[in-house]
């Protein structure tokens, strides 16, 4: 990681943050709705529902501007982003319907491995429908739009597509935020490439503000800190969006399972065997739409080897749950660009991602993020 100079951004120096998005699905819909939902929030209000930071080092949410977008679905390609975010198979809750025309059309990206073969067996309003158009030159579009940051929202299991967009970010000179469980920022070979290009990256696999993984991590850490030995644990998730339909193909879940499992295991005093720790998606229930249900169970032994069992059910609208984290990740990536910090950003990745290059407790990662915001050196 290089630091050429140190610059603390003030509100007087604040400027727009130009963002490109690959994958205009439910997560992108929630993120973009949020940009308008919070656009008039008083910058002096530090307690805003749903936000970890209202203003971050001088940057407000209203400073984020989407300047380029890519997808492969014929119901989205060619449409203004403001319309595409509400097109099928998107089904997340609409909390800000009045998204004005943004003047940014969704461009056709390469399909690669972004569409699981089994999806063709399901109704049109539930699955991806690839457009017949020729993919655009993504690097050219990124440069033309003057995008500073590229966010990857490709479907789970899109190894080739994610690597493609990571390469495009490198070629176009964009910071990269990898919200999906394909290991880019957590791999040294990729981190070194971003460092060599003097570009920051944050990843991999976005956490939710209060989602299954962060709750499971927190409970596991609590048990460990209180001297309770965890013997067995599981996390079962199901939902009704296109992501859960996509994940019915277990072949696409290898990196997802690794990401979620390592995130929880990193908080344990002793790692569990494969048989005793199960974390991963379970099934697709169409009528749930973007609502995600998680069942978490921990079995352990406390004082005197006396058994303890904990069971929890969590129900959340999935996509808005991660958008709050991405809002902060965008502004932290922008800070890194302002300060000429290159390579993987350790503290933002540890706090906002399930599979960072280095794991910390969430309390420590939060402390490190606050230090990063204030301009202190990354560890």
What features would you describe in this structure?
- The structure is a single chain.
- This protein folds into 2 domains: 11-208 and 320-373, Rossmann fold (3-Layer(aba) Sandwich), CATH 3.40.50; 212-318, Dihydrodipicolinate Reductase, domain 2 (2-Layer Sandwich).
- It is built from 11 helices and 11 strands.
- It has helices at 26-37, 81-84, 138-145, 159-172, 188-196, 212-225, 242-246, 254-265, 318-338, 346-352, 362-373; strands at residues 17-22, 64-71, 106-108, 149-152, 175-178, 200-202, 229-239, 277-284, 291-301, 307-317, 343-344.
- Strands 3-2-1-4-5-6-11 form a 7-stranded parallel β-sheet, with helices on both faces.
- Strand 1 (17-22), helix 1 and strand 2 form a beta-alpha-beta unit.
Helix-strand blueprint:
Blueprint: E1 17-22, H1 26-37, E2 64-71, H2 81-84, E3 106-108, H3 138-145, E4 149-152, H4 159-172, E5 175-178, H5 188-196, E6 200-202, H6 212-225, E7 229-239, H7 242-246, H8 254-265, E8 277-284, E9 291-301, E10 307-317, H9 318-338, E11 343-344, H10 346-352, H11 362-373
Parallel strand pairs: 1-2, 1-4, 2-3, 4-5, 5-6, 6-11, 7-8
Antiparallel strand pairs: 7-9, 9-10
């Amino acid at each position: 990681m290089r630091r050429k100079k140190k610059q603390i951004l003030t509100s007087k120096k604040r400027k727009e943050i130009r963002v490109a998005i690959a994958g205009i699905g439910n997560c992108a819909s929630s993120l973009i709705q949020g940009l308008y939902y919070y656009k008039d929030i008083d910058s002096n209000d530090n307690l805003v529902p749903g936000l970890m930071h209202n203003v971050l080092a001088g940057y407000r949410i209203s400073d984020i501007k989407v300047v380029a977008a890519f997808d492969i679905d014929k119901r989205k390609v060619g449409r203004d982003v403001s319309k595409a975010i509400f097109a099928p198979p998107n089904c997340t809750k609409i909390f800000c319907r009045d998204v004005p025309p943004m003047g940014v059309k969704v461009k056709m990206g390469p399909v690669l491995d972004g569409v699981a073969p089994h999806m063709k067996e399901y109704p049109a309003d539930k699955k991806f429908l690839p457009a017949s158009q020729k993919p655009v030159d993504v690097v050219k579009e990124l440069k033309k739009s003057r995008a500073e940051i590229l966010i990857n929202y490709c479907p789970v299991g899109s190894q080739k597509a994610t690597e493609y967009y990571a390469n495009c970010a490198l070629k176009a000179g964009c910071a990269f935020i990898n919200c999906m469980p394909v290991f880019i920022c957590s791999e040294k070979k990729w981190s070194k490439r971003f460092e060599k290009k003097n570009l920051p990256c944050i990843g991999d696999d976005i956490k939710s503000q209060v989602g299954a993984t962060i709750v499971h991590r927190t409970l596991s850490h609590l048990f460990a800190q209180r001297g309770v030995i965890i013997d067995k644990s599981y996390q079962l998730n199901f939902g009704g969006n296109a992501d859960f339909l996509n994940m019915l193909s277990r072949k696409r879940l290898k990196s997802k399972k690794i990401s979620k499992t390592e995130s929880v295991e990193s908080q344990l005093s002793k790692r569990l065997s494969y048989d005793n720790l199960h974390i991963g998606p379970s099934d697709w229930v169409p009528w749930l739409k973007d609502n995600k249900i998680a069942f978490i169970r921990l079995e352990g032994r406390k004082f005197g080897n006396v058994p303890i069992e904990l069971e929890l059910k969590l129900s959340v609208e999935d996509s808005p749950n991660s958008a709050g984290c991405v809002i902060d990740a965008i502004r932290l990536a922008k800070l890194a660009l302002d300060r000429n910090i290159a390579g993987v950003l350790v503290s933002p990745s540890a706090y906002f991602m399930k599979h960072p290059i280095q794991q910390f407790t969430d309390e420590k990662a939060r402390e490190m993020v606050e230090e990063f915001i204030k301009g202190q050196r990354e560890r």
